[in-house]
Design goal:
single chain, alpha/beta, Rossmann fold, 12 strands, binds zinc ion
């Protein structure tokens, strides 16, 4: 039984009007079938996990704590939240390609790091090392995608980078659930065990200390006024030396290593403090 199922099957919230149970589907309690107030303050929607699902805040808090405890004590994994655009890839509209970039439309059919999305006018370029990054990071982290793109965009991208959902499962949060800013409230893990990799710091107002800000990956030309030639026109790409993903991976590995160094201290470890510690020692 998953941690989430354990929580759902236990009634422990003293706050709800109708019953004490933690989860409801479309306004009906999943444990006792009574009606619950969907607009009740102590409930939060989790439609991305299952349409109509709401959980009480207590259930979410408990699930988070159990998830981090069990994955850190068990398979020695932490949680990692990954942004898509400019972090793992760069997407542009075909109609915005410059003359010097149009050769890419033909190349998209044969290259394995460049695709034209079937249902739309988008061309997607993967950041170098993205596949190695996902493979290696998945050994240390349970991974989540968190994007300001729509769900249908996220689904098309996942078909390219994780077709069997080996890395991300259903752990995908999009603009549809989280339209303005990003928050770890939707991520089933304790904040002390979650790292975020994103090129935009501002979208994480409440979780800056969990964040590793990665350099923004741009492959295509952004504006016609841009002075230097983009990788697309130069026919080059980020190299291993200046690769944002390689640098971030080293840092993730360091945090993971420090978190698990002393087994007896696992329950008090906090990635936010470890990140700060590493930053400070790098400054000296
Ligand atoms: Mg981004
Ligand atoms: Zn109930």
């Amino acid at each position: 039984m998953s941690v989430l199922e354990t929580v759902i099957n236990n009634s422990f919230s003293p706050y709800t009007n109708t019953c004490f149970h933690a989860a409801s589907l479309h306004g009906i309690c999943v444990a006792c079938n009574s009606m619950v107030d969907e607009h009740y303050l102590y409930r939060r929607p989790f439609d991305h996990l299952s349409p109509g699902l709401q959980l009480t805040h207590d259930a979410v808090a408990l699930t988070k704590r159990l998830a981090t405890n069990s994955s850190s004590l068990g398979e020695q994994k932490l949680h990692l939240v990954l942004d898509l655009d400019h972090t793992l890839l760069h997407t542009t509209e075909v109609s915005r390609l410059t003359e010097a970039e149009k050769y890419l439309i033909g190349e998209a059919r044969i290259r394995d790091d460049l695709w034209k999305l079937k249902s739309s006018d988008f061309l997607v370029k993967l950041r170098p090392f993205v596949r190695d990054f996902l493979r290696e990071a998945s050994k240390m982290f349970t991974m989540h995608v968190y994007t300001m793109g729509t769900r249908s965009y996220a689904e098309s991208i996942l078909k390219l980078i994780d077709p069997d959902r080996f890395y991300f499962g259903h752990r995908v949060i999009t603009r549809d659930e989280s339209p303005c800013t990003k928050t770890l409230d939707f991520v089933f893990a304790d904040d002390r065990g979650v790292m975020i990799v994103d090129d935009t710091r501002d979208v994480w107002p409440d979780h800056q200390r969990n964040l590793i800000e990665i350099s923004e990956y741009n492959y295509f030309r952004k504006k016609s006024s841009q002075h230097s030639k983009p990788y697309s026109e130069e026919k080059t790409d980020e190299s291993e030396n200046d690769s944002g993903l390689v640098k971030v991976f080293r840092l993730l590995k360091e945090v993971h290593c420090r978190f698990f160094r002393v087994r007896e201290e696992l329950e008090s470890k906090d990635v936010r403090l470890l990140l700060q510690e590493i930053e400070e020692s790098n400054r000296v």
